[in-house]
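Collaborator request, handled under Task 6.
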Amino acid sequence: MNRTPKLSVLITLLLYFNLIQAQTPNDCSDAIQICGNSSLDLDVSGTGNIDTFSNACGMVENNTIWFRLTFEQGGTLGFVLTPNSSAITEDYDFSVFGPTNSCANLGQAIRCSTTNPAAANQGNNLTGMSDPETDVSEGPGADGNSFVSWITVQAGETYYLLIDRPIGNSPFSLEWTGTAQFPESPEPQVPSDDAALSFDRCDNLAPFDDGVASFILEENTPIILGGQTNTVVTYHTTEEDAILGNNPIASPYMNTNSNEIIYSRIENTVSGCFVTTQFNLNVRSINANAPSDLIICDNDNDGDITNGIAEFDLEETISEVLSGQDPDNFTVTFHSTENDAENDTNPIATMFENTTPDNQQVFIRIEEIANDCIGVFPLNLTVNPIPEANDTTLIQCDEDGIPEGFTIFDLNQAFDDITGGAPDRTINFYVSLSDLENDEDELNADAFENYFNPQTIYALVTNTTVGCTNIAQLTLETSSTASNNAILEVCDDDGTEDGFYNFNLSNALDDILFGLPTDLEVTFYETYEEALIEDNPLGNNFTNTIPNSQTIYARVENMNACFGISDIQLTVFELPNIVIQEEVFYCLNNFPETITLTGGLIDDIPNNYYYDWSTGEDEFEIQVNEPGVYTVRVTSTDGCFKDRTITVSSSDIATFTSIEVTDATSNNSISVFVSGDGIYEYAIDDPSGPYQESNVFVNVSFGFHTVYVRDIENDCGIVEELVSVIGFPKFFTPNGDTYNQFWQVKGISADFQPNSQILIFDRFGKLLKELDPLDVGWDGTFDGFNMPASDYWFVVTLEDGRTLKGHFALKR
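Structure tokens returned to the collaborator:
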């Protein structure tokens, strides 16, 4: 099929329920005219008004759209309708009516199809008219394949195409087939739809800042039409209205926002074909800025510095409003009211004195000469009050020893008097008004030394919030009066002997103010300079920063005027350096001998102190011979004292209470028991030791031993006691070599169990010898004959009643 151009139309069925029915082509009377170069995008919904028609397919309106088909050239006509969704459930139906020129006379449909693709088991959901088909109607439901035969049309004939979607929600596209041709649409005769047609206009209607202007839309009509004939142009606010030809707007037109799109409909009056185009209505405001508030300080130009009335130079705002633009391109006027500014009436002078105190609003009118742009901006005028600045006098003491009337002043002391105590204030001081006005040689307010007495300087008071200033005079006077010095002395008895003490400075007030007028005020300072310029005052409680001795200062004032500066000598006396606690011992066995107790001084001479003993004595040393607690108060010549406590504890030489001996064993031991007030150690056989803390000796050899007990608490002496340990030699050798010639029981003497019985037997039980416990022992003979080497037995009956048995060896 040769046909140019081919028409492809995408119709989007978005079911917007808020659209007015008359604005959508779902009625035959609103059918869309199909033209050769048409391209449409519409929102439609529902059925509109149900049109009267009949068909052989049982088609009714569900969601419909109508097209009007007028042909410029006859031939065959077919089409393919393709839903955008390939789902088989998307079901489109159609009917074709004609030829007819009236929706009121549609008659019977010449083609129709209501086949359901899913019910008919189709492989796709397409429908339409095509060449191979021969049937003119099909459906509903499973009947047919969704395509019927195309039609043959004549030039000038008109047909109507109704498309309906009973099931689904997908948009669709139409592709026309066959040899018939539609008439061409008119074309806008501009290279760009927007740029050539758009209006760019200043906002020149009051109010000038709302972005609204007046437009003659028809100024674009000649540009749009060019040389086309049989063509009309209408203007619309929405694309829907332009497509449907509804609600054309008339000039002059007032835009509704500063960047508004207007749609034009270009329609051929013969064919009914049309196209739409758009352009912008751009409303710009004047290129100018709203001015900042104009703020000045109250002045005395009108003779009153407190009435909130001052003169403003309004021209100061022009450069800010124009922001660098050439002022010769603008007309600028000032007005008292916004209405006057908008109407350009009643201008006010640029040197303007406000008529409302403190705050007033005027208006600035800016008109751009070249293009008639106009802007009106409010201008706020504010008159800030100047700060309070009171003349005052500052009196300082001349305490440097040279009575010439010159001293150092802390000018900040006058701050509250000058400012009235107002917040957000600063003061700068100058020796002259010329220096103040030129901001030269500002004085050091913390320490200024006058060179006249009295001397007047100038204070520039600034309100730091608004920047307004005022000037006061400060008179400096020097006082030659004096106040009394004072001395505060304390002992370093605060628990830490470091030469530092927390003084109660109020204790010096009576001495400082003695003989002076009443109603004086006293403030304390650490240094003379601080007292002079009243910097870093001290509280009533002050801990000296220099150990033992320091001078601080008291500033005496009368009604904030310096009366005098006094020295306060702070002295922290050292306490006696003594041993606070001591324990000594007295040996009771030495009574009535005495021991010496002292005042316990460390590194000093006893005569520098006084002594008060608990015994009533008052010397550095005393003699005592009794245990007890003795105290002495040691007092320096400065009156500072410490108390010393001496505990005299008793000690004594030991007294034996008992000695227990475990003997005649393989591990003999001696346990010594004593009484006494001392602390004791024990030694055996040697008074020099070694001594041990334990009172038990083990592995003691048999025989006689001496035990020693000494007092180690106070070295009160050593006691001793002889102890017998009974034992038996394992052998003896009576061979004449002087060693081990006799066998005898050890540990028996005239003092230890002398009445014991000792019997010796041979191994057959024959009694060989009864020994004298105090004799040298058995010599190994019987009846004058030497007994052979062998084991022999003994039976010992001790005086204490014990019977001991055993054996020993005789070796030759």
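The cover message to the collaborator said: "Helices lie at 221-225, 239-244, 318-322, 338-343, 415-419, 433-438, 509-512, 528-533. The two ends are 161 Å apart (CA to CA). Please let us know whether this matches your experimental observations."
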